[in-house]
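Hi team,

Below is the intake form for CD8B protein from Odontophorus gujanensis. Please confirm the fields before the structure is written into the shared record.

FORM ID: S-0412
PROTEIN: CD8B protein
ORGANISM: Odontophorus gujanensis
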Amino acid sequence: GFCTNLLMSRTPGHILAQTNSSTEIVCPVKREHTGVYWYRWNQSGQHFEFLVFSSPLGKATYGTNISQEKFSTRGTSSHHSYSLHISRLHGSDNGTYYCCIIQSSQLILGTGTQLGVVDVLPLPSTSTLAPLSKKPMQCKPKKKAIKKGACTPLVWVPLAAGALLLLLSLIPTVRRFYRKHR
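The structure came back. Fields below:
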């Protein structure tokens, strides 16, 4: 069975790719290990499928019926980052991909990257696009802080006060209207 200690990160969390294209999933490894295992969670079959093991020496061992032309792995010279390259994507490649390492007789599982393969990619909204950065992203724990935006007291207190003043200003108008119709 799996020991699902989620102690490794991965990038990105979700990939949407077009049929017949290729994609790459990166797995940063910050712990000592003897290599990285790649698995795919098959939602329809409800099981993990072993894809490939990549040793620190660069040797790859593939699972049963796994194509070496379709799946390839790469590791950095420092062995702190591994990637799984998937080519000629098809709908059967849909699933959640996990990188794993073995440390102290435990299988340490990454958080997973969900891959969706579609025939036509949706058009991006130009107003929500962020600039692409060539720098690697680092995950940092989020600190609890007051978020600036629609839910802060700086926004809702003046809105509530304005609504109250509006209601209070309507009272004399309603009284006059009521007296006229009597």
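SUMMARY LINE: Residues 14-118 form a domain with the Immunoglobulin-like fold (CATH 2.60.40.10).

Thanks, M.
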